[in-house]
Amino acid sequence: MGARISRQQLRRKGTLARPGLPRSTVAVGISGGVDSAVAAMLLKERGHDVFGVFMRNWDESEEKGNENCSVEADLAQAKSVCHHIGIPLHEVNFVRQYWTQVFSDFLAQCEAGVTPNPDLACNRHIKFGALLDHCKGLGADKVATGHYAQIARCSQSGQLQLLRGLDPLKDQSYFLASVHGQSLADVVFPLGRMRKEQVRSLAQERGIPSALRQSSAGICFIGRREFGDFISDYTAPVAGHYVDVDTGSVLGPCANMLALTLGQGSRISGLSTRMYVAGKDMQQRIVYVAAGPDHPALYTHTAALQEAHWIAGEAPEQMRSTGSMECSFKARYRQVPELCSVSMPGRASGCTPSAFTRLESNWSAPGASVAFAAPARAITPQQAFVMYSGEEALDCDELVYAVGGS
Predict the structure, then answer these.
(1) Are residues 316 and 265 in the same domain?
(2) Domain range for 257
(3) 122-141 tens-digit pLDDT
(4) Is residue 231 part of a domain?
(5) 69, 82, 122, 254: which is the annotated catalytic residue?
(6) What is this structure's pTM?
(7) C-alpha atoms less than 13 angstroms from C-alpha of 49 in its C-beta half-sphere
C-alpha cells in the first residue's frame, strides 16, 4: 500500500502524457463522488500521470444510524471510477490520525459548549497534511482534490493566494482557509473554474459511474443524522433550561445544551412561537432563546477573534502598517460574504462578551476585534471566521465571543 508508484505501472494504466505536453505526477484524492472523479479525469486528459488515493478517515464499525457515510460503499465507487478513467487506486488508513488530530479536539470543544467545524481541521491536518506527505512518498509531484477553489501566485510578492471557486454556491475556500500556505504550493484544484452543473454534465458525457451520485451532506461522520443524536453517542448530555431573552421567564427544560448552537431554531413544548437560540450560559445551564429568526438578540455589531492564521504567512500590508483593514468575511460556509473592519492586536473599545453567552472555557485575550458594517446574525464561538479581499481568502480565525444584540 505504501510502495512508490513506478512509471511502468502508470504506463500500463495508460496515464502517461502525450509527447509535447508538460507533465507531472498527480495524486488525486478519490472519495467516490463526482467531483473528485471529474478532477482526476481532467488531469489525465491534460496529459498528467495520475493515480488515485482513497482515504479511510473514520472507523464506522461501531456507528449506527448514519446511512450517508459508508466507507465500503465509497471505496467500491472509487474503484469503479478509477477503473473507468484508467488510473490506479491506492488505499490509505488515516483513522488514528483523524481521531487524534481532528475528532478528539472536536469532542472537547463540543463539551465546552462551543460549535467547532471539524472539516477545516481535517483539511489542514489530514487532506493537506498527512495525505500530502503520503502521496509524495508514492512519487507524486502534486496532490489534487475535487474542491471548488483556486490557487494563484501574486505577481508582485510571489506569495500563494487561495481564491474562491467560480461557482458561488459551491465555493469551498472557507473550508480550506486554515491550510498552511506552503502546503498549497503542492496542491491542484481542477474544478476551481467550473460550476457544479458543468461538472455533472461532463461526468455524464464521459460515462463516469458517479455522475449522478448524491453529494454528501454535512460532516461525513455525522451525515444526515441530527447533530444531537450523534453527539449523545460520544458525550454525556448537559441538561439546562430555556430562558426568554425578553422576559427572563423559564420556558422549559433543555435535554442537552451541547446539541444546540446559536441561531438554531428550537421547538419548546407548549409554545406556538418558534424560538431561536441567542446564547448559552454553560455555567448556569441556561439556553437563552428569542422569538422569531430575526430577533435583535440574534445579531451583533462586533466580535473578538483568536490568533490569526494568515494564509500568506503574514498579515496584508495594510494591516501591518495601520493595524486595521477593511475586508469581507464568512463566519459560516453557506454565508454570503459581508463587509467588516478588523483591528489588531488585542481588545477594541466596547468589544465585550455577550450577555447571553458564557462558556466554561477560559479563553485567552483575543488577537483581533471585528466591527461589522451591518449587524451580523448568529456569530458563534469557535466557528471559523474567514476574511476575504475580493476573491482572495486572507485569514482563518476562530471566534472568541460576540457582543449581543440590543
Answers:
(1) no
(2) 236-293
(3) 999 999 999 999 999 999 99
(4) no
(5) 122
(6) 0.85
(7) 18
Give the helix/strand (H/E) hosting 399: strand 392-402
Predicted confidence (pLDDT) per residue in 63-117, tens digit:
555 555 578 889 999 999 999 999 999 999 999 999 999 999 999 999 998 888 8
Do the Cβ atoms of 109 and 382 come closer than 8 Å? yes
Rounded to 5°, the CA angle 97-148-9 comes to: 65
Owner of C-alpha cell 444526515: 224
* pLDDT score recorded for residue 23: 77
Sheet strands (E) in 154-308: 160-164, 187-188, 240-244, 250-254, 265-266, 275-281, 286-291, 299-305
Task: Mention every residue, 6+ apart, whose C-beta is less than 8 A from residue 193.
Answer: 150, 165, 166
Active site residue 122: yes
Residue 230 lies inside a defined structural domain of this protein: no
pLDDT at 205: 95
Domain shared by 194 and 282, yes or no: no
Q: Are residues 273 and 307 in the same domain?
A: no
Per the structure block, which three cell numbers stand in for 361? 472555557
Enumerate long-range contacts of 238-242, CB under 8 Å, 24 or more apart.
238/113, 238/282, 238/285, 239/285, 240/280, 240/285, 240/286, 240/287, 241/285, 241/286, 241/287, 242/266, 242/268, 242/275, 242/286, 242/287, 242/289
**Exactly one of 135, 220, 254, 351 is catalytic; which is it?**
220
Q: Is residue 389 within 8 Å of 286, Cβ to Cβ?
A: no
Whether residues 285 and 301 fall in one domain: no
Q: Among this protein's residues, is 69 annotated catalytic? A: no
d(CA 330, CA 403): 17
Q: Is the dihedral of CA 76, 81, 87, 91 positive or negative?
A: negative
